[in-house]
Amino acid sequence: MSGKHYPEEYREQIVKLARAGRSVASLAREFEPTEPTIRSWLAAANGTEPAAEVELRQEVRQLKRQVATLEEEKAILAKAAAWFAKETIKTPNRSLSS
Predict the structure, then answer these.
(1) pLDDT along the chain (98 residues), means of 10
(2) In sequence order, which residues have a C-beta less than 8 Å from that of residue 65 and are 6 or more positions away?
(3) CA 29, CA 52: separation in Å to the nearest integer?
(4) So what's the pLDDT on residue 1?
(5) What's phi and psi for 72, nearest 5 deg?
(6) What pTM did the predictor assign?
(7) Rg of the chain taking only CA atoms, in angstroms
(8) How many whole angstroms separate alpha carbon 66 and alpha carbon 31?
């Protein structure tokens, strides 16, 4: 998931291009936002979608990205813990008294 927060001016420029006749697909190919993102910007700009719903959807996308990041970090930590456990078992037990 890509996604990030786009500045208002950037969104307005994409909406203007779409209203000028550019297809949503071509805008998505040329610029970073996905087709569904651009369509939601158009709907919000046209007043067909409440702004609160747009914000809620953006928040959900952001939270999904955070969950994906946390899951990746958790997997890395689990592998590290397993590696350290294995290394601890391999190391011979050294006695303090010589």
Answers:
(1) 73 93 93 89 80 80 96 97 88 60
(2) 1, 3
(3) 27
(4) 40
(5) -65, -45
(6) 0.47
(7) 24
(8) 23
| The two three-digit tokens of residue 60, written as one number | 């959900």
Separation between Cα atoms, residue 57 and residue 93, nearest integer Å: 55
Let me know: does 43 contact 26? Beta carbons within 8 Å.
Answer: no
Q: What is the largest CA-CA distance in the chain?
A: 84
What span, in angstroms and rounded, lies between the C-alpha atoms of 23 and 39?
Answer: 10
Triad 15, 27, 5: Cα angle to 5°: 65
Residue 29, both tokens:
């190919």
Amino acid at 55: E
CA 10/CA 97 separation, integer angstroms: 70
